[in-house]
Each structure stands twice: as structure tokens, then as C-alpha cells.
Amino acid sequence: MIPIRIFFTKTGVARYISHLDVNRMMQRALKRAELPVWYTEGFNPHMYLTFALPLSLGQESLCESMDLRLNEPVPPEEVQCRLQAALPDGFSVTGVFPPQEKYAAIAAAVYRCELYTEQPETLAADWERFAALPEILTEKKTKRGSSTVDLRPLLSDVKREQGEEALTLTVRLPAGSVSNINPSLILEAFAAHTDQVFYSRILRTGVFTSDGKPFR
Amino acid sequence: MEENLSRLLARVQKPARYTGGELNQTVKDKAAVDCRFAFCFPDTYEIGMSHLGMKILYDALNRMDGVWCERVFAPAEDMETAMREEGVPLYGLESYDPLTDFDMIGFTLQYELSYTNLLNMLDLGGIPVFQKDRGEGLRGIVIAGGPCAVNPEPLADFVDLFNIGEGEYMLPEVVELYRKAKRAGLSRSEFLKQAAQIEGIYVPSLYTAEYHADGTISAFIPHEGAPARVKKRIVRELDEAPYPPSFPVPFIETVHDRVILEVMRGCIRGCRFCQAGFLYRPLREKSPKRLCEQAKSLCETTGYEEISLSSLSTSDFSGLPELLRDLLPYTAERKINLALPSLRVDNFSEELLEQIQSVRKSGLTFAPEAGTQRLRDVINKNVTEDEVLRSMEIAFAGGHTGVKLYFMMGLPTETSEDIAGIIELAQKVVDLYYHMPQKPKGKGVQVSVSVSTFVPKPFTPFQWEPQDTMEMIRRKQAELVSHNKSKKISVHYHESKVSVLEGILARGDRRLGKAIYTAWQKGCKMDGWSDRFRFDLWTDALAECGLDPAFYANRCRSYEEILPWDFIDIGVDKAFLMRENEKAKKAETTPHCRAKCAGCGANRLKGEGVSCF
């Protein structure tokens, strides 16, 4: 069995596909690609796919990854090529590597959030005031209930660009199994702070380990 | 995708229902097509995407140069609210263009409880709901087909033309006629007049109905050269008919999310309650060779992990042993599961069980339909208790510990004894399990009894019979539950109100159109969903229109009465249905078609003088 890690993008209409549905879609794509994927040997044999850092419904990403095992070696370029041909629009394979880091090594992710609104300059001014608040306490729901987090420390190095239709914020947030912050949490807190109505698109642009290197 | 749609999708559950973009969808260049067809399924995406007929016709239409068929489904409540608020009309999933951009808008009628959704979808798409309000422009012809179209009358006010029977060849013919009419600049009524001359096409606006004082029909009159009888179309050779080489593969889980391989059309059995058993006559089978090709093509293009061998009674398919022999090595190697729904207890074997569970073990369901031999003879089910028990024994010996048994209540001639018989039969199955030395060790048995309410349907021997009233159904349901003393048996039944409405719509006439419209105006839609079904609003709507539910559902009709669907010729003679009804009253059975031809007349659809076998 040969473990491999496949990196892919999920953009456009594909952002409306949930994490579980991506899993099933990938199994079918791997089947169409006729790759020698290893199956579990139980009562109900199935492909064993794992995904790092599940993406929320509605968000896009340039850096998704999934791990699987092959029964026999296949050159990475061939895996990429065959899988790509079997994928629907919105998914693009960007690389195939032997896994280098464990999922536990993931520490941060960077998101680019576009906030579409009628007056981006007003929204930008509101953001400035929001980010300068002494603390931003917000409720974070988890599987085990909910907890209160202060978002303020996360906003210290947010990059801001102001366009004609949108205000774009680039944020680096803790990610992984220890601490994970969804960018929509920040946008929801901001939406409650501003009078401006905005519609957002969120793109995950990178996943990093604790020493700041891209997750591989 | 347009930004306004993105805003809507951010607000709703399961947005992937509304985005299209699935693998194997068909996208064409708008500039290169002259007929755009919106294929509408009047229910949610998950239901509609499970439907084989839609896949077949989507493929058949998209094979035509210059024609582009797209898919449209009924939005769920949250999406509909958002669309109405933002002024986004109902659109085709492939192009996001509104229904008003389409030349033809086709609906498939799979069950009566979807009728209000048809009205609602037209309205959401900006198409006038009433046929008479659509003017003389040609664009936006509303078509309907599918099994419920065999009694098209309740929808006569809303539909421009109906397709009666199988659509593989009929629908492309209608589309071709439309393209000619478009080039010639014909009006809607001129086109409809010509369309009525195509075999299988019914144009309701070209007919008028007259009534006796008691509300029954006195005359049904065609106008402008429309045929007095509309004859059902069939595909004579299934091997030669178009079958999709690929299915659009949904991203979200749908009800039937797998390769559906239709092995045959029609059924040899002649169960007297079963509308499909008469509608899809005569029996036509595909060859195992063709089926293997279709299965492989579909597996390779979809990546599905399961194939369902589909038909009304798959164990009656004569090519089954050969098909399984040829297909199993292929599916086993690729870890593809083979599922055989619709097995009969009288030809279920150990070998068959072994074959179907060679990859994964799936649940087993059997349908004795009635609790006593007498009632099974009335409905011509032609299975005995011994056969039921023998099948269960095979299933248990094969390691199954749970079986599902389907029954109906409210069948003609039913007595308390028949209701008690349902639980008695289930108890015998439980007892059988515990008496088997080779039963799976350390496991209990679970028998799930699912009981539906019988609804008499057009073109069955019971089309004249009264349906049980709601009170009768409820009393019988309570009686059924009271008989069950075992924890190993679980009993499930359906809400009786739903069956009552289904019964009214199934045997309705064109006067019901007003009530459907009124019910929809009051807010009725998604009537097939128990959480959305508003029987109180339907009752009000019928009353406001001066219609008596009992006239449609609970009345015994005479053989002499002109039934609203009599002008449709499905190939099965009315005299045959009468003979079968008489035999039912005497609990006499009719052998299946392969054993002895019962002379129903459907063989003539295959060509004059051709026999079925």
C-alpha cells in the first residue's frame, strides 16, 4: 500500500458542495479514473479517504488535500492527469505527493474574504473601528457545546484592500485540531457591528504548519 | 453564475440542489439551438434526480442537433421564499435562464400529489398557470407525460398537450413539429391542432365534456379533427431504443443514487391493484448483451458503486441468469454492488441470493400484499404462504436477520380476517426463524411490516371500485396494530388523508382543475410531503368548488358509466378489465402471461397479429 496526498482546488459552483459530498464525489472520480485505490477489507469494502481541515459549505479553496492509499505505485503526474480528467468543473488537481506532515502539524490557514457592498469605503472605515475595539467576544459553537472567544487578537495583521465593489480582507487564523477559527465567525461579528449590508465570498489560500511552512 | 443567485444560495439549505454543474450534464451553445426544452420534475431535486424516465428523455432530446434540454426541479420552501423575495424566476439548472426563455416546458407526472407543484413551478417561472391565458404565441408550450397522464383530465386546464405512453420517440416527434411550426410562424392553436394528429398526443383544449345531472359524464367530444380515442405509444424494441450512455451524477445524495439499468418494461403478473402492471403492457425485455454494454458504459462514465436492475418484477426477467453470469465478474472486480429490487417470493432462490450479495449485503423486502390466501387471490398476487415462508427461510439461512414485508389495506372485499392475517403471517415468519437450526447465531429477528392504503387507479380491474373512507382506513389501522403482540414485529402505515386525496385526483375529471387551482392558491404544494400536506385546505378548496370528495373516491361506478379516462386507449381492453373485476369478486386467479395469455389485447401494440412471447 502506497499512501499519497492529493492537493486540489474547490472553486466556483463547487463551493456549494458540502464536505461529505466532496468525499463521495472523490470516490466516484477515483473510480472513473480507474486508479488502483486500496479498499478497506471489511463487511462493506470502501475507499479510505481522509481530508485535512474540512472546508465550510459556501467557501472556496486553493489548497484542499486528501489522503488515500494505492495498491501499486503510479507516477504522481499520472495520478494527477487521470484524476483531473474525471473531475467535474470547479475541482482542479494541483499536486500529488507522498504525505510529508501529519494532519496534527497543521496550525494556521489564510483566507481571503471579499465583502461585496454598495459603499466599500464606508465598510472599510467601519472595519477599522471594529478591528480597533479593545476586545471582540463572540460565541463559538463546537460539537461539545459553545465557548466564548476573543477575536480581537486575530485581527492585528489583517491585510485590507479596497476595491470599487468590495472590501477585501486577508486573514491568517489558527487552524487544525487544537484551535480552529472559521473566518465566517469574524464576518458575522463584523456584520453585527456595521450598518452596511454586505455579501461575502471566502477563499482559503493556504494551510501552514506551526513553523510557518506550507502544509505538505 | 449571476451574483443575485449567489446571494440566494448563501441563505438556503443544500444549495447544491440549485447550481447544476454536475458531471455529465449537457451544456449547449444557445446560439446554435432553435428549441430549448425545460424538463421539469414537480418535486425536489433529490426525488427528481432519482427518476430514470427523466434521464432517458434528457438524453433522447439532447441527442437532437439544435435542441437543448435542461433540468428544472421544485425548490424547497426556503429557496422558494428567497426566490420570490428577490424576484428570481424559476430557471434551468444548466443555463440559469428563466422558464420564460424556453420553447417547451415539460413535466413528468409520477404521482398525483405532485399536481400543485406543477402549478407552482409554472407560476415561479413566470408562465401563466391556465392554458387559456397563454395567448397565441408559440413559445412556452406546456407538455406533460408519465404514468399519471393516462388520466390527464384533472390537469386539462393547465397543460397544452399530454404525451400518452412512452416518450423515447413521441417526444422528439413533438419537438420536431414545434421547430417546423416555429419556422413557419404558426400560432399556438395552429400548432396544437397539428400536434393532436401525432399518435399518443392529447390536446385537452380540443375536447369538451358534458355531464348528466348526477355528475357522471354524458359525452366527451373531440373538435377540429382531434381523434376520438388517443392511443398509447410504446417502444416496440427496447434494445434499439435510446438509453443514456451516462447519467448526470448529483453532488448531493439523492434517493436512488446509482446506475439504474432497466432490464424490461411491463410485467407478466397482472396483479389487479397495480396500475403499472397494466399501463406498461405489453412485456418487452432487453437482451443481456445490450444490458451488459449499457451497464459498463454507465459505470465507467459515472463512477457509481451500485447498479440496480430495475423493472416491475426483476426476477421475472427471462435473461436474468445470463445477465448475472456476464455482469457479476465485472462488478465484483470493481467492487460494484448489484441490487435487485422487486423480487418475487415464488422464484427467489438461494443462488440468486448468493449472487446479489457477492459484494455487499443489502436489505431484503418482500411484498405478499395481503394477509390471507383468499385476498391474495382476489388481487391476483399468485403467491402462497408456503412460498413466502420458503423465501424467508432462504434469506435467514443466508445470514439475513431482518426482512421487510409490504402489505396493502383497503383492498376490495377485505374483512377483519384479512387484517388479522397480516400480523399472523408476520408472526409465522418470526416463528420460522426461531425454529431454524441454521439461523444466524446470537441474533434476534426483526420483521418490519409496512402497510399502505389501497387507492383504486384507472386502467386496473378495480377502477370501478369504491375506495375505503378515511374512517374505515383509520379503524383498520387501529385494528392491525392491536393484533400485534410481538416485539420482533414492527408495524408502519401511512397517513390516511394522503391516500384519500390521491384517490380523488387519480380518478378525477376535468372539473377538478378548479379545485387544484384553488388548493394551490390557498398554499397547497409539496402535498406528497407529510410535513407540508394540508388536508384542511384541500377540503376547503373542494367544498368551495362544489365538488364532493366521495363522488370521486368512495363511489362504486357502473360498467356502463363513461369514465373520464375512457377516451385513452392504453392497449388493454376495457372488457378484459371487467372480466378481471368479476373474477376478483369470486377470488379466482388468472395465470401470468407466460403461463397462459389472458387476452388483454396489449399485444396489438407490438403490431397487428404479433403475440407477446
Structure description:
The complex is a heterodimer of chains A (216) and B (613). Chain A has 216 residues and is an alpha+beta fold. Chain A has helices at residues 19-32, 76-86, 120-131, 183-193, and strands at residues 2-10, 50-51, 60-70, 91-97, 106-116, 137-142, 145-150, 159-162, 166-174, 199-209. In chain A, strands 1, 2, 3, 4, 5, 8, 9 and 10 form an 8-stranded mixed sheet that branches. The model of chain A has no long low-confidence stretch (mean pLDDT 94). The longest helix of chain A is centred in the N-terminal third of the chain and has 14 residues, at 19-32. Chain B has 613 residues and is α/β, with parallel strands linked by helices. Chain B has a domain at 3-231: Cobalamin-binding domain (Rossmann fold). Chain B has 20 helices and 19 strands. In chain B, the strands form 6 sheets. Chain B has a 6-stranded mixed sheet. In chain B, strands 15-16-17-18 form a 4-stranded parallel sheet. A 3-stranded parallel sheet of chain B has the order 10-13-14, covered by helices on one side. Chain A binds chain B through residues 12-14, 16-18, 21, 24-25, 27-32, 39, 43-45, 57-58, 86, 88-90, 116, 199, 201, and chain B through 1, 3, 6-7, 9-10, 15-16, 18-23, 249, 251-253, 300-305, 334-335, 359-361.
The CATH superfamily of the domain at 3-231 in chain B is known as Cobalamin-binding domain
Uncertain segments of chain A: none
The Cα radius of gyration of chain A reads 19 Å
Identify the quaternary structure here. Answer: heterodimer
Residue-averaged pLDDT of chain A, rounded? 94
Q: How much of the residues of chain B is beta strand, in percent?
A: 5-15%
- Structure class of chain A: alpha+beta
Q: Class of the domain at 3-231 in chain B, according to the CATH hierarchy?
A: Alpha Beta
Query: Which architecture name of the domain at 3-231 in chain B does CATH use?
Result: 3-Layer(aba) Sandwich
For the record, the count of structural domains of chain A works out to 2
Mean pLDDT of chain B: 94
Using the alpha-carbon principal axes, give the shape of chain A: elongated
Fraction in beta strands of chain A:
35-45%
CATH architecture tag of the largest domain in chain A: 2-Layer Sandwich
